[in-house]
C-alpha cells in the first residue's frame, strides 16, 4: 500500500540480532521464468516463488496478455498460455517495473508484433533499451517509436549474430528467449553471465530449446518455430542479492546470524570483500553464518557484472562501511544514478564524500542517528532499514512499496532475528 511505512528502533551500534534468516527465491530469476510461459505450448509450473509485489504485477500483465496464472501451492504457480497471446503491453503496469521489457521478445517471436511503453523500474540511472532494439532489428524486425511507445513488427524473423555493446542482463534473457522461437542459429556475443540467466537457459532447454553457453559471454541458440513443451517445473534459485544484503545486516547488527537456503558460491567476490573487512563468517554449501564482528575495517568496493560484487548490494554495503574503521571507496560501475541515497546516510551522521555519479568515499566509524526518510528504490530502501537498525533512536522509512517490490514480508523476517520493526 502506497502510504505504509516502517517504524524501526535502532540498536545504537550493538551487535544484538541472532537466529536464522531463510532466503527466498530470486526476484530477478523468477520474473523471467514467468515471462518464459509465453514460449510454451502447454502450462508450466514454477516453484519457490517469493511473495513480492513484482510477481503480482507480472501476473497481472500476463493475464492481460492471455496467460492463465494460478497459484498451485504455498510457493508454486501454474502458468498456461492461451493459443494466441496479446501483443499490446501498453499501460501503467508495464511502465511500473523493468522486467516488463523481457516480455517484448517472446511476444514478438510468437506473434510477430509487440507494442510497449518505455519500461520503468527503480530510478537508478538512464536505463536505455537500445541493445534490445538493435538486436530485434538484426533479427529482421521493423521499429516505430512515438512518444516513448514502441511498435515492433516483423513478417519473418531470422537468426542473427549479435554483439551487445554492454552485457545487459535483461537483454541477454530477452534475446535468448526470442531466438529460441526463431528458426535458425543466433549467436549473442558479450552477454551477461548471471546465475539467473543459466537457470533460465536450463529451464528452456528442459522444454526442448537448444541453448548453449549460458553462464559465459557467448550464447548460441539454435531456434525453431515450434513452441516448447514443459516437462519439468522451474525451481527458482535462491536470491543472491537478498542473501548478500542479509549478510551485510548480520555483519553490522548481528551477534550470530545464519542465512540459510542460499548459494554462497554465487557471492564469492562479496565474501572476499567481507574477509578483507574483517567480517567473521563461515559458509556451507547453502548457508552463511556470521558471528559477532567487533572490528570492521575499511575496504574498497567496485560493483561489476557477475561474478563481481552486484550493484544491487552496493547500498547495503555502504551502511557497513560507515561502521568500518578507515576510509573506504565505492566505485559503482553499472548504473550512474545509484549513489544518491548516500546523501540520506550522511544526514544520519555518515561521513560521505560523493566525487561523481559513480564514485564516493565513506569514512568510519561514525555513529548513525535515527531519521524519517523515504525509500528511493528497492535496494536503497533495504539499506535504509539496515542503517535504521544500526542507528540510535527511532527511524521511519516511507515509500516501503519500493521494498515490497522485491523482499517478501521483510519486517516479519527481521523480527524473527530480534529486530524491532513495525509496518504501520
Ligand atoms: N544498458 C544500455 N542499453 C540497454 C540495456 C542496458 O545501455 O539496452 C545499460 C544500463 O543503462 C546499465 C547497464 O547497461 O548501465 C547494465 O544494465 P542491465 O541491462 O544489465 O540491467 P537490467 O537488465 O535493466 C538487471 C536487474 C537489476 C540489476 C541489473 C544489473 C532485472 C529485472 N533487473 O537490470 O536489478 O541491478 O540487472 O545486475 O533483472 C533490482 O533488482 O533492484 C535491479 C535493479
Topology:
Elements: E1 6-9, E2 17-22, H1 27-36, E3 44-47, H2 53-65, E4 67-71, E5 77-81, H3 92-96, H4 104-111, E6 113-117, H5 130-138, E7 142-146, E8 149-153, E9 161-163, H6 169-180, E10 184-189, H7 195-206, E11 211-212, E12 218-223, E13 234-235, H8 240-253, E14 254-260, H9 268-277, E15 280-284, E16 287-291, E17 301-302, H10 314-322, E18 326-331, H11 342-347, E19 351-356, E20 359-364, E21 372-374, H12 378-390, E22 394-398, H13 401-404, H14 410-415, E23 420-423
Parallel strand pairs: 2-14, 3-13, 9-10, 17-18, 21-22
Antiparallel strand pairs: 1-22, 1-23, 3-5, 4-5, 6-8, 7-8, 10-12, 11-12, 14-16, 15-16, 18-20, 19-20
Helix pairs in contact: 1-2, 1-7, 4-6, 6-7, 8-10, 8-12, 10-12
Bound molecules: uridine-diphosphate-2(N-acetylglucosaminyl) butyric acid.
Uridine-diphosphate-2(N-acetylglucosaminyl) butyric acid (EPU) binds next to α1, α5, α6 and α12.
Amino acid at each position: 500500500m502506497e502510504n505504509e511505512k516502517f517504524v524501526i528502533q535502532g540498536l545504537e551500534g550493538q551487535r544484538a540480532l541472532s537466529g536464522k534468516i531463510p532466503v527466498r527465491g530470486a526476484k530477478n530469476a523468477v520474473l523471467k521464468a514467468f515471462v518464459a510461459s509465453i514460449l510454451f505450448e502447454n502450462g508450466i509450473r514454477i516453484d519457490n516463488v517469493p511473495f513480492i509485489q513484482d510477481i503480482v504485477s507480472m501476473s497481472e500483465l500476463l493475464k492481460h496478455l492471455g496467460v492463465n496464472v494460478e497459484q498451485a501451492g504455498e510457493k508454486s504457480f501454474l502458468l498456461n498460455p492461451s493459443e494466441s497471446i496479446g501483443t499490446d503491453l501498453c499501460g501503467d503496469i508495464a511502465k511500473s517495473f523493468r522486467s516488463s521489457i523481457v516480455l517484448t521478445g517472446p511476444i514478438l517471436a510468437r506473434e510477430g508484433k509487440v507494442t510497449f511503453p518505455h519500461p520503468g523500474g527503480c530510478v537508478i540511472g538512464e536505463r536505455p533499451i537500445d541493445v534490445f532494439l538493435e538486436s530485434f532489428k538484426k533479427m529482421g524486425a521493423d521499429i516505430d517509436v512515438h512518444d516513448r511507445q514502441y511498435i515492433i513488427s516483423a513478417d519473418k524473423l531470422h537468426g542473427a549474430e549479435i554483439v551487445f555493446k554492454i552485457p545487459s542482463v535483461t537483454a541477454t534473457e530477452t534475446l535468448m528467449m526470442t531466438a529460441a522461437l526463431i528458426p535458425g542459429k543466433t549467436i549473442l556475443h558479450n552477454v551477461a553471465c548471471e546465475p539467473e540467466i543459466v537457470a533460465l537457459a536450463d529451464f528452456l532447454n528442459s522444454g526442448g530449446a537448444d541453448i548453449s553457453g549460458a553462464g559465459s559471454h557467448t550464447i548460441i541458440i539454435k531456434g525453431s518455430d515450434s513452441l516448447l513443451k514443459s516437462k519439468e517445473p522451474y525451481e527458482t534459485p535462491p536470491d543472491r542479492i537478498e542473501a548478500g544484503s542479509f549478510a551485510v545486516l548480520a555483519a553490522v547488527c548481528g551477534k550470530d546470524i545464519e542465512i540459510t537456503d542460499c548459494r554462497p558460491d554465487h557471492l564469492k567476490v562479496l565474501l572476499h570483500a567481507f574477509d578483507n573487512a574483517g567480517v567473521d563468517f563461515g559458509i556451507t554449501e547453502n548457508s552463511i553464518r556470521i558471528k559477532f564482528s567487533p572490528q570492521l575495517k575499511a575496504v574498497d568496493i567496485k560493483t561489476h557484472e557477475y561474478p563481481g560484487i552486484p550493484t544491487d548490494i552496493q547500498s547495503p554495503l555502504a551502511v557497513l562501511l560507515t561502521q568500518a574503521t578507515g576510509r573506504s571507496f565505492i566505485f559503482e560501475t553499472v548504473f550512474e544514478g545509484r549513489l544518491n541515497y548516500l546523501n540520506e546516510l550522511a544526514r544520519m551522521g555518515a561521513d560521505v564524500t560523493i566525487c561523481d555519479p559513480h564514485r564516493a568515499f565513506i569514512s568510519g566509524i561514525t555513529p548513525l542517528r535515527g531519521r524519517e526518510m523515504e525509500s528511493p528504490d528497492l535496494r536503497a530502501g533495504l539499506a535504509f532499514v539496515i542503517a535504521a537498525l544500526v542507528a540510535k533512536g527511532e527511524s521511519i522509512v516511507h515509500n516501503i512499496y519500493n521494498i515490497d517490490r522485491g523482499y517478501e514480508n521483510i519486517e516479519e523476517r527481521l523480527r524473527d532475528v530480534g529486530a524491532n520493526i513495525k509496518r504501520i
